[in-house]
Amino acid sequence: MTMMEKQAELGRKLFEINMSAASELIKTQQEGLKTYFESNSEYGRKLPEIKDLATAMEMSKEYSETMYATLRTSAEAQASIVKSAMEEAGAAMQASFSVAA
Predict the structure, then answer these.
(1) Which of 10, 41, 65, 82 could potentially form a cystine with 96 if both were Cys, beta carbons 3.0 to 4.6 Å apart?
(2) Cα gap 74→6, rounded to integer Å
(3) Does pLDDT of 101 surpass 60?
(4) Is the dihedral of CA 9, 14, 20, 23 positive or negative?
C-alpha cells in the first residue's frame, strides 16, 4: 500500500471513529437530559407534600443525590467513549505510519 493510500485510509478511519464517538456522546447526553427532566418533574410533583423543614431537607437531599448520580454516570460514560475513541485513533495512526517489513 502506498503512502498516499495509507493516508487516505487513515483519514477515513479517523472520520469513522469521530462520527461513532460523537453519536455515542450525543446518545449519552440525551439519556442524561431525560433523567434530569424526569427527576425535576418528580421533585416538582412532590413539592406540595412538604409540611415541615425535615421533609423539605430530606427531599432536597434525595434530589441532590439523584442529580449527582446522574451526572457521575453520564461523565463516566462519556469519558469511556472518549478514551475508546482515542485508543482506536492511536491504533489507526500506528497502522498508517508503520513500515511494512
Answers:
(1) 10
(2) 36
(3) no
(4) negative
Rounded Cα distance, 28 and 78, in Å: 7
Q: 49, 90, 95, 43: which is closest to 67 by C-alpha? A: 43
Q: What angle do CA 14, 86, 88 make, to 5 degrees?
A: 60
Supply the DSSP symbol for 47: G
The CA distances from residue 48 to 54, 65, 97, in Å, are 14, 20, 64
- For residue 22, what is its C-alpha cell? 460523537
**Res. 95 pLDDT band, cuts 50 70 90:** confident
* Neighbour count for residue 21 (Cβ, 10 Å): 19
